[in-house]
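Continuing the series of single-chain predictions for the mutant panel. This is the parent chain; the variants come on the following pages.
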Amino acid sequence: MVLDLFVAGIAVILVALATNIRGSGSTGYLSVALYQIVAFSTTLQTLVTEWTQVEMALGAISRVRTYILDTKDGNLPNETGHVSDKWPAKGAVVFNGVTASYDASTDPVLKDINLSITPGEKVAICSRTGSGKSSLVSTFLRMLELQSGSIYVDDIDISTTTRQAVRARFNSPPQDPFFLQGTVRENLGPLRVATDERLIQALQSVRLWDFCESRGGLDEDMNEGTLSHGQRQLFCLVRAVINPSNVLIMDEVGGSVDADTDALIHEVLQKEFEACTVIAVVHKLHTTLDFDRFVVLDKGRIVEEGPPRELLERPGSLFKALYDSMQTEER
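Parent structure:
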């Protein structure tokens, strides 16, 4: 608006001068001058718009540079160990006397956790709300510091290697899916480690390919607004499928989806991650009865563990009490 008024003012001044100064020029010259003023308006608007974009880009670069230079390394001095590119090659996980709290002044949320998981085993973690199941996952991903104890993966203490290595080597689909600005292909694998055929196959495994294909396929811009919550969870699961790891961590990924989507998630787990170690925090117990083992927490401690069918038949079982209460709620 300001630029338009500025150019209009120049045009008015030009016309006023041309009409009041004798012999200042012909009508043709005046027409050309007015045309050039209109063209100058467009050029000036483009210049201001582009300059604004450059300023925004320079500001973003400055903030990124400041973050890189000023942000402290999240690793502790002893967390400098390097691991093999193939780690974890097996997926054996051991929690050895793990105790952890969110603050040194508060009671531990995990107390003396001892748990051994064999390669390829599917283990479900369950408990009442606030008993520490999500905290257990947080310690594994190095987001919650240990007060004592250790966690080993394939005989390597994860506290001795960098946090980036730990989080990059384990698959952990988020509860709240995150999408990048870009195409479907870029959102599935920004590093492009999988072929288009593999991407399509993975989308077909969670029944999302028909949906994506109808909207332009892999080259279509990602619009998360067109996806339901369940489809977003499935999309994140596809990312785990095409970026395989021998350890998969899931924190109630299917806790807020409908029954059909939850069943599909567990079908994909059994098919695509058959040889992987799976540690899943679960809320809907009846959909995970095909897991090898359940671990039941209460007030930060392991109080029960074993095959689900066996726990359901055990007298006084806390797992059975949780299972029965959830069945009652669903009715």
